[in-house]
């Protein structure tokens, strides 16, 4: 599920050129503040994972609670991250993972994008750039996919702005759509199609 963050980047920013290299997506021209790339997450990312996975602010809109032990984090990576069909670490130039982004199949033609990023990196345009990289390439990697969608908590304004800046279409509010940590929540549905233009 997209995570809360604040973004101040210019919504008129043009989309960067990208290249694929061994399952990684690299931004040739990225956000103004940080250059990022995406790569498969591995067990060696556990210490970086624990930085954002233990942060209550980061996990507020996630379906999972903050992790309280390294062992639980290792189990999550082994049992969920590694078998996931499409999940990447969001990395800085030094290859350190500061968040993750995934596309989870909904059915044979739809995928749901979700992302989370350490709170230290909110407001730098990094999540927006990561979503843009995925939206630019996922339909090439998965030609059977006709729709990339995102469900965002109605109160998660930061994540809604991320999607809108990339070019996702806000389709409407799904009322009483999800039970999140014991609370029934309204969710906003966004979508991006192969024929849509990146902003």
Describe this structure in words.
This protein has 199 residues and is of the alpha+beta class. Helices cover 23% and strands 32% of the residues. It has four helices and nine strands. The protein has helices at residues 46-53, 70-81, 126-141, 157-166; strands at residues 18-21, 24-27, 37-40, 87-91, 97-105, 110-117, 147-153, 169-180, 183-192. A nine-stranded mixed β-sheet has the order 1-2-3-4-5-6-7-9-8, sandwiched between helices. A hairpin with a 2-residue loop joins β1 and β2. α1 (46-53) crosses α2 (70-81) and α3 (126-141) crosses α4. The radius of gyration is 16 Å and the shape is globular. Mean pLDDT is 87; it is low at 3-32.
Strand order of the largest sheet: 1-2-3-4-5-6-7-9-8
Strand-and-helix sequence, N→C?
EEEHHEEEHEHEE
Which value, in Å, is the CA radius of gyration? 16 Å
Report the sheet with the most strands, covering strand number, pairing sense and barrel closure.
9 strands, mixed
